[in-house]
Amino acid sequence: MEIKAQKNQFIAKLCSDCHASVELASRYNFSQIQADSYYESYHGLAVKGGSKLAANCASCHNYHDIRPSTDPLSSIHRSNLSKTCGKCHPNASIDNKFAKVHVTNTQEESIMLYLVKTGYIFIIFGTIGIMFIHNLLDLIRKKQEKKKHKHAIAQMKKDKKYYVRMTKNERIQHFFLLTSFIGLVISGFALVYPDALWVRTIRSVLGDSAFEIRGLTHRILGIIMIIVSFYHVYYLLLTKNGKQMLRDFLPAWHDWDDVKVNFKYLTFRSEEKPAFRRFSYMEKAEYWALIWGTVVMSLTGLLLMFNDFFLANAPKIWFDISTLIHYYEAWLATLSIIVWHFYFVIFSPEVYPLNTAFITGLMSEELMEAEHPLELERLKALEAAEGGAVEGTEKSDSTDKEVDDKKDEGPSVKE
Questions:
Q1: Range of the domain at 224
Q2: 3-class state of residue 364 by DSSP
Q3: Are residues 77 and 155 in the same domain?
Q4: 108 within domain boundaries
Q5: Three-class SS of residue 359?
Q6: How far apart are CA 387 and CA 102, in angstroms?
Q7: What CA–CA distances, in Å, run from 70 to 67, 76, 82, 359?
């Protein structure tokens, strides 16, 4: 099987060496696009990654009797493309209007793909740039705050009072989301960058079946994320805690006020800090971006997974667009998690070296005071109304169900 993979790579290199040559392209009047676009496609990336089954040049153009695409007898003539592609994709129906196979993302080649690519590049640089500036200013301000209120913070740490931030159910959901996302990032980018050192290291460990294992892993993790997403919808709509979470995550007018107050604070134009409720505008923005990204990645991922069905029932251009969106959305999601989420749960001065709420479910009083003062105020008011602290954390004798129920009824505190 390893010999077959090497054969695929040899054929692709043999053909691309000539098609990538400026001199030969000029002498024989053929385009160099074919070589570049092949290696940017799934087929080319898969061959470079060690696939034994992915199509090489000869799979479509044949070994001998190679004719130009304008020749009606050619295997790549528009009238024969459905049959040629159908050798690997049964019932493929390649519409003449979108029959171009060696398609690139340039404006001259495809205006639709060009707009998708350009739009995503603009969104990625704009979004990540704003996130980076926001968090850099946030880092500076929080360092000042920690130094300014170090005695009050020390006293609250001494009191060792904690509040439930995430129930067991929510932590389990987060665990599956966390692990599937990281696995999808690794297995997905391993396809796109087969020559990267870390990818070659993984392939050397997994051996001859590395590419097949990568693909299977990526699909399984994608299905897990979709299942978790459907369960999360059920949780939001049909459970008591979930309904409250949804209400708390919905955008509200006070979020806009918080943005304005925080912007002045971060840019040193005011000393007034925003007082956040259960979820700040930063957490809400991340949450709804996660929802959007999951929907987009799931839809495009399913289209790519079931490519035989879609190539038989939809124009090929939608397959090309989905591939492009899947790639750039993956970059946007990955960079957002690194720059935005990792900062707030790892590198923010208030939580460094790690906010462990996703493990223990608990958040300390000093962290609640720093990040969610209005939520802390609400919990303390409920606690006072009930005449004392409400026991019910994983450290107590209460069951997880009791913890969840008490969280809805009032604050859950551990001293």
A1: 114-414
A2: strand
A3: no
A4: no
A5: helix
A6: 72
A7: 8, 8, 16, 62
Question: How many other C-beta atoms can be found within 10 angstroms of the C-beta atom of residue 409?
Answer: 12
HSE toward the beta carbon, residue 44, CA cutoff 13 A? 17
Q: Which of 82, 102, 122 is the C-terminal boundary of a domain?
A: 102
Instruction: List, as one string, the DSSP characters of 282-298.
Output: HHHHHHHHHHHHHHHHH
pTM of structure: 0.86
Instruction: Indicate the residue among 55, 72, 102 that finishes a domain.
Output: 102
Q: Could you tell me which residues come within 8 angstroms of residue 289 by beta carbon, excluding any fewer than 6 positions away?
A: 336
What is the C-alpha end-to-end distance of the chain, expressed in Å? 62
Q: Which CATH number does the domain housing residue 390 bear? A: 1.20.950.20
User: Tokens at residue 358, please?
Assistant: 């996703």
Distance CA 195, CA 84 (A): 29
Secondary structure in 3-state letters for 28-86: HCCCCHHHHHHHHCHHHHHHHCCCCCCCCHHHHHCCCCCCCCCCCCCCCCHHHHHHHHC
Identify the top-confidence range among 152-161, 260-269, 364-373. 260-269
Nearest to 176 by CA among 317, 294, 70, 338: 294
* 47, 9 Cβ separation under 8 angstroms: yes
Question: What average pLDDT does range 132-156 have in this prediction?
Answer: 85
CA distance 81 to 75: 7
Q: For residue 267, what pLDDT band results from cuts at 50, 70 and 90?
A: very high
Q: At a CB cut-off of 8 Å and minimum separation 6, what does 210 contact?
A: 49, 50, 202, 203
